[in-house]
Amino acid sequence: MSRIVGLTGDETAAEAMRQINPDVLAAYPITPQTETVQRFSEFVANGLVSTEMVRVESEHSAMSACVGAAAAGARAMTATSANGLALMWEIVYIAASYRLPIVMAVVNRALSGPINIHCDHSDSMGARDSGWIQLYSENCQEVYDNLIQAVRIGEDKDVLLPVMVTFDGFIISHAMERVEILEDEEVKSFIGEFRNSHSLLDIDHPVTYGPLDLYDYYFEHKRQQIEAMEKAPSVIKKVGREFGKLSGRPYDLLEKYKTEEAELIIVAAGSTAGTVKVAVDELREENVKAGLLKIRAFRPFPYQEIAQVLKEAKAVAVLDRSASFGAQGGPLFLEVRSSLFEKDRRPPVINYIYGLGGRDIKIEQIKRVYEDLEEIAMGRRPTQPVSYLGVRE
Amino acid sequence: MKEKGWKEIPIGGLIIEAGNAEKYKTGSWRTFRPVRDEEKCNHCLICWIYCPDSSIIVEEGKIKGIDYAHCKGCGICSTQCPRKAIKMVEERSK
């Protein structure tokens, strides 16, 4: 049984955290993540969770406390945004390399500078090589669903990696939506107990975390991390199916929205996927064969599945909500296009950088992208591989 | 010690066996080796107390030698020795 409530993205994340009831939550406030932890701290104060809440002095300390807690065998969580994630950086990599399944909500916000508090994906995209699994959420419901699944995915014995669940700052974090919440007991039994087989507190089996690891073994430990990431897709799919049985909302690595027989496909992640769906629906009314491929898992990157969906399309546009300065395009674009390279048949793929610093993206703009794709599908060569949607010239 | 492949070792760089640092030979890190002068040494054991790598071999209260398989050549023993009985000698000059 589930109940239907109206919650903002931040409140939804807090509600998921309440039901997960982690042993430790260490966090530092930063807009637009603040309300997640603020709301959770009320649950702590009211005795609704048994979590040890650590009010640290910085995000670097927040992640450090999570690493210590998880190494001691605790289920640890945190939440942050943008510069907070940037300040954590050093320990973000360490959490992944120690193979600690910490779950972190990342409320996507533009990195400074100039200082900006609104949404783009520069923060989490910057952390794409840190060794964390990354799940992007389209709306409040997905924030809830992804956080609960993240616990299971990260703690799977074949994976043992930390997981970031991202959602767009303000657009999701501060917008109230209809959210279906499972029963506390259902979540509790779905996530089960966390057992760290190498706990620092297990004095019968002493363990050292973080010893010096030089040219003779560091490479082997990195190879193990790569292997864990390669095993993650099947675990993400398995957990997504099980979650579907519980909630009626199954999950996969990607969401294919009207991509069957679609000739023009947009690839997007985050809240913009919802806007693209509206554009697709309207264009389908006009018999334009438009479709959307939504990226849920960016790490691990489901390149085979992506190529399978896109190879029959006539033209593809990838929307990136972050810039990779000096690269050939946005991070999503580079990997989507690369995933098609081995295919004999591959459509032209173009890139749009959009929405930086919270710049709004409208249905009309997305329809213009489909118009561009239509022309390319008819044989016009793209004038440039990368365009900037919504920037003033 | 034979180096193992990535499938054979604990994940995350964890050390799950207590006291196994002994298996990791660090003698090759040394540039200068401590050489003890038997004549000057009065077995006060100050070097044994200070050695960070437990490389001063002691039996029945007497220094028997130096464990060159683990000694990194830090020179603390030589600095601390009150009788200047330990000299640091460059490795290549035998």
Automatic annotation (TrEMBL), chain A:
| PANTHER family referenced in this protein's UniProt entry, alphabetically | PYRUVATE-FLAVODOXIN OXIDOREDUCTASE-RELATED
Domain Pyruvate flavodoxin/ferredoxin oxidoreductase pyrimidine binding: start-end pairs? 15-239
Source species, domain of life: Bacteria
Q: Name one GO molecular function term.
A: oxidoreductase activity, acting on the aldehyde or oxo group of donors
This one is known as Pyruvate ferredoxin oxidoreductase
Q: Which GO terms describe its biological process?
A: carboxylic acid metabolic process; response to oxidative stress
Record's Pfam families?
PFOR_II, POR_N
Keywords in alphabetical order, please. Oxidoreductase, Pyruvate
Specify the Pyruvate:ferredoxin oxidoreductase core domain's residue ranges: 262-366
Supply the gene name: porA
From TrEMBL, chain B:
Q: Which GO terms describe its molecular function?
A: 4 iron, 4 sulfur cluster binding; metal ion binding; oxidoreductase activity, acting on the aldehyde or oxo group of donors, iron-sulfur protein as acceptor
Q: PROSITE patterns in the record, alphabetically? A: 4FE4S_FER_1, 4FE4S_FER_2
Record Gene3D superfamilies? 3.30.70.20
Q: Which Pfam families match?
A: Fer4_10
Which cofactors does this protein require?
A: [4Fe-4S] cluster
4Fe-4S ferredoxin-type domain ranges (all copies): 32-60, 61-91
Q: Which NCBIfam families match?
A: PorD_KorD
Q: What is this protein's record name? A: Ferredoxin
